[in-house]
Amino acid sequence: MPIAQLTEEEREALLHNNPEWSLSREGKAIERTFTFGDFSEAWGFMNRVALLAESQDHHPEWFNVYNRVEITLTTHDADGLSQRDVVMVRSIGELV
Ligand code: HBI
Fold first, then answer.
1. How far apart are CA 84 and CA 69, in angstroms?
2. Using CA atoms, how far apart are residues 78 and 93, in angstroms rounded to an integer?
3. Strand pairing partners for 92?
4. Helix, strand, coil shares, percent, the chain, to 5
């Protein structure tokens, strides 16, 4: 089911409020790299994000090497960023 994309103003507010994140894919996604002490911590973080993703029915694209986790958020059903990404950015921010 299609979902509304964020407006330009909403995208700017998202970035302004979350300076650790940056736009990618020509404004259709947002990404952030997280670095932890070791793999165990990184994996623990990924576990918690996975539970969030399931509860929100909104799933990250991510890449992990040892203590580093790169997360890209986008909404496939919107072909770009949506409020679902705003909520996920906020939820992930509360975890770290
Ligand atoms: N995760 N990132 C992302 N984007 C989506 O559009 C999406 C999702 N997880 C589940 C989901 N959509 C469902 O609503 C179905 O479209 C599979």
1. 20
2. 23
3. none
4. 50, 25, 25
Confidence of residue 1 (pLDDT cuts 50, 70, 90): confident
Q: What pLDDT is attached to residue 41?
A: 98
Rounded to the nearest whole angstrom, what is the distance from the C-alpha of residue 56 to the centroid of ligand 1? Answer: 9
List the structure tokens of 85.
Answer: 């990404």
Cβ–ligand 1 distance for 57 under 6 Å, the answer: yes
| Residue 65 one-letter amino acid | V
The Cα 17–Cα 80 span in angstroms is: 19
Determine if ligand 1 sits within 6 Å of the CB of residue 56: no
Q: Please indicate, yes or no, whether the overall pTM of this predicted structure exceeds 0.85.
A: yes
Give CB contacts under 8 A, 24+ apart, made by 21-24.
21/89, 24/72
Nearest CA to ligand 1 atom 8: 58
